[in-house]
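Incident log, support desk, overnight shift.

02:14 A customer reports that sequence design results differ from what the structure should imply. Their input is reproduced verbatim below. On-call engineer (initials T.W.) acknowledged and began investigating.
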């Protein structure tokens, strides 16, 4: 087995700690704990790519299959320069809980390639996608493991991967991968699904907190796919976003963009690159105040939406969260460390945990798979309507359990998810 993370905080250790805590709370038997606290299997491979200048470069790739007791593994493939096997393991495990908490018949998995697409041409990225699929072609498929886009991968990458898979297997398998382009087996609504899903859960949480969206302010970390669509729907239901932050590739640091009367989503979209990086100079000319990247967490707002990367709310910065904040909706995977969680609990902040808040993406991926398998595609209203029903009912399941047993929302979500997966393992006779 592989290396451990080079990051100071290990996301897999965090995912296991969260699991162990809940396994103890529900008195889960030891064989099931052993089975569920690690992946069923994982693949580590080298991807030799001929670069545009004629040289060869070898990239590292991973695919982790955490658990498939409830259905085929499901999970995105990330392209990121700091990708580690432990990040992929953690994300694979969280996918298992995510599919279980929204009650869709899928298991968990995740993939990653250590690379920086900012520095790769489209041809090099295509070669990487095809090489990745050649390495795992026999271990994935519509009935085994269904990948999807994630950080710095998109519909084009998925189509190259699908094309390579179909060449290898000599037939059409549109259900092999999700997040495909619309018109090439993709579902309408998939692009919006994760961000919109975050806001479906925010809408429900606001009801519990007796707040009206139009009376709330929010601050968002990230300005990529999840953040932009969360902002879009949150603004549509009346909310105001005063701050967003993103990574600045040129400065190799993050910046926050602040506007007291609310950001203009269309204007910021117009000055951001395809990686969700906002042009600083143009933002200044549009009247935005540029703050250090961490400033997003210190804003006087009602709602915080971390929608960038893991490990962004820690024991070091959770104390900077304003007293006004009542709700934290985790758009990103694993943004909050356990010591920060402790502070949030003490402060009484209502947390919508990542694997519930951002489950809209995988739920819509599931709807895409269903459409691909029947080769019939629904209209956008139908897709988003089904997504809303699934997300809302998952939120209600979790919040009712939390209220009934006076639990933190994260624990309630874990209890539901782990119990469902453990039951499936027992029913199959695995443990
Ligand atoms: P993305 O690549 O489209 O956007 C990421 C954003 O985060 C960019 O704006 C980038 O500039 C910003 N960012 C990166 N590092 C940062 C930093 N240190 N500080 C501030 N901003 C920073 O990615 P995405 O698809 O929007 O995914 C965001 C998160 O949501 C990830 O944790 C991902 O795993 C999770 N997620 C994504 C989906 C999906 O469908 N896209 C589904 C579920 C969960």
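02:41 Re-run completed on a clean worker. Output:
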């Amino acid at each position: 087995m592989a290396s451990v993370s080079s990051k100071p905080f290990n996301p897999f250790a965090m995912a296991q700690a969260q699991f162990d805590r809940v396994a103890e709370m529900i008195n889960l038997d030891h064989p099931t704990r052993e089975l569920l606290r690690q992946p069923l299997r994982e693949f580590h491979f080298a991807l030799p790519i001929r670069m545009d200048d004629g040289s060869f470069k070898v990239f590292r790739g991973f695919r982790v299959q955490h658990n498939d007791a409830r259905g085929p593994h499901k999970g995105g493939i990330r392209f990121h320069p700091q990708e580690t096997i432990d990040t992929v393991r953690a994300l694979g495990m969280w996918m298992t809980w995510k599919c279980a908490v929204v009650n869709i018949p899928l298991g968990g998995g995740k993939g990653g390639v250590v690379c920086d697409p900012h520095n790769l041409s489209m041809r090099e990225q295509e070669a990487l996608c095809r090489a990745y699929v050649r390495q795992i072609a026999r271990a994935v498929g519509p009935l085994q493991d269904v990948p999807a886009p994630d950080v710095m991968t998109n519909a084009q990458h998925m189509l190259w991967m699908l094309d390579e898979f179909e060449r290898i297997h000599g037939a059409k398998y549109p259900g092999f991968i999700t997040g495909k382009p619309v018109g090439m087996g993709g579902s309408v609504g998939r692009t919006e699904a994760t961000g919109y899903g975050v806001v479906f859960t925010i809408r429900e949480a606001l009801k519990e907190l007796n707040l009206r969206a139009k009376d709330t302010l929010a601050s968002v970390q990230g300005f990529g796919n999840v953040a932009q669509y969360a902002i879009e729907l949150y603004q549509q239901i009346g909310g105001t976003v005063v701050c967003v932050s993103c990574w600045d590739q040129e400065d190799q640091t993050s910046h926050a963009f602040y506007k007291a009367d609310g950001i203009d989503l269309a204007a910021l979209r117009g000055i951001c690159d395809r990686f969700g990086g906002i042009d600083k100079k143009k933002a200044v000319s549009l009247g935005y105040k540029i703050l250090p990247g961490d400033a997003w967490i210190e804003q006087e707002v009602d709602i915080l939406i971390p929608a960038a990367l893991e490990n962004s709310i820690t024991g070091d910065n959770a104390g900077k969260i304003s007293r006004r904040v009542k709700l934290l909706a985790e758009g990103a995977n694993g943004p909050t460390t356990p010591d920060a969680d402790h502070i949030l609990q003490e402060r009484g902040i209502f947390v919508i945990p990542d694997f519930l808040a951002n489950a809209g993406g995988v739920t819509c991926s599931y709807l895409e798979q269903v459409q691909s398998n029947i080769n019939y595609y629904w209209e956008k209203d139908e897709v988003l309507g089904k997504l809303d029903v699934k997300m809302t009912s998952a939120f209600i399941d979790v919040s009712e359990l939390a209220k009934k047993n006076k639990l933190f929302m994260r624990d309630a979500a874990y209890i539901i998810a782990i119990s469902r997966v453990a039951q499936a393992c027992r029913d199959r006779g695995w443990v």
